[in-house]
Amino acid sequence: MATAAITIRGLTKCYGNLTALDGFDLEVDQGTIFGLLGPNGAGKTTLIRILTTLMRQTSGESFIEGLDTRSSGREIRRLIGVVPQENSLDRYLTARENLELHARLHGMEPRHYRKRIDELLDLMGLADRQKDFPDTYSGGMQRRLVVTRALLHEPHVLFLDEPTTGLDPQSRRAVWDYVKSIAGSMTIFLTTHYLEEAEQLCDRIAIMDHGKLIALGSTQELKDHLAGGTYYLIEFGEDAERYGALLRHMDCVRQAEVNGNSVCVGLESWECLSEVVTALNGAPVRRIALREQTLEDVFISLTGGKVRG
Amino acid sequence: MFKGACAIWRRDMLVLRRSIFSEMAAVVAYPLTIYLAFGIGMKGYIGLVDGVPYSLFIAPGLITMTAVNAAYSESTWSLWFHRKVQFTIESYRVTPISVSEIVIAKILSGFSHGVVKGLAVGLVIFIITPFRFSPAHLLAYLAFLIPGSALFSCAGVICGTIMDKPETIGRVEAIFIMPLIFMSGLFFPLSSYPADVMPLVRALPTTALFEGARHALVSGVFPVDFALQVACTAMLTFGAAVWIFRLKMSE
Predict the structure, then answer these.
(1) What is the distance in angstroms between the Cα of B87 and the nearest Cα belonging to chain A?
(2) Interface ipTM
């Protein structure tokens, strides 16, 4: 059996009285795109800092391709690429010089890194601007340059800490397209606030809050886990409140929320729909539509609706 | 092992090379103004100090002051900027180099700034004055300038590591660094001090640096005790800088 790209067992990190990570367990398979979601302060960045050897845990274990983050820092850093939240580009070096410095820090030989830089700059659409300083780049271009830097030494595991935060939709799409294009060639560990991003890119998703793992699975598994069935939107000509109350009392209805003339009904399973239709016989039903659960529904139901600072 | 340190030092030297002319103008202007105002302007009023013209008396100190100031400023501000503003230290730390290599690179860069800028001021003073020194004097002087720049570069790294706010860095410069430099006999002979405070003044590494540098350059005397004091303090400060930086990075 292949070694997991990332293995985390009982990982705990305390800052004084604050527990940022609380017995966190996780395993990420090689070659997958893994998404880590969580509200602000959930412990995502602490987890990434431990995995990238920037920080030591209080207790527990974490491994990158079988290497212990506590004792094999240098070896791990050869294997990983990191796109941090902040761009961390050197504004006094040109784009190409930024990449050359990074290549030297990875001990790459000039004949290797020159070719690799040319290829990556071409691929990321930055070749024409390689002699410019990063300050003259747009936010999207700077982000692409940071991603290029992280890929330069051909890492096995790529950490993307909120890679598209602050980007316009076009630049975000460009980063997504690139991440999709390299999927399979390396393991990608991504944290994001954009649920659509996780939904679009990730094979598996973990949701964490208060330093703990609270859900894990594919997007569909997480949606199924939340609803345990399906949601329908039923639009009435009148008396939506009365029909909402009627539906709420049915055994196979998990929830019924009235919004204007519509009632959003959560069913135990899709088979319950005929029961609902029968119960509404004679009611002024205008439309019944299947409402897909979104990852956002899952996220909010698991972490609470309020935004935390 | 030092490939990483070398890569970061090369980066710093590339940036210095790019801005060398604008930097030099600023670096040379300050000591040169002092030299013209005190060394030449006051020459007629002060006369000989320790048997040499006042303008010659202050020349080695001004060169040394430029070097150590440049070393200190470069290390402090560069480290603070890369750590708190540009976050480049973090980008270095996710590569296979060690934390020690990063701090050694920054100390080397500060030291290089100090030596280059000190020598530039020395060259300007050499051009505008009639004083000429033998190569032996110059070599003896370098034996102070080099460890002195290293010492201040290490001190700068310590400040840039432990201080998170720029205003604190400015305060340390005003309260500690400048008084240490100015009170170490840069503009006046140590004999001006009352006898009671003399042991304290002589114990300062900056006194050893400025006095030793002057003796070496002006009279060709090589004060071994001063040279050892500067070298030992530089080595101790180097150890402290590496240790403090590693400690800060592990937080």
Answers:
(1) 5
(2) 0.85
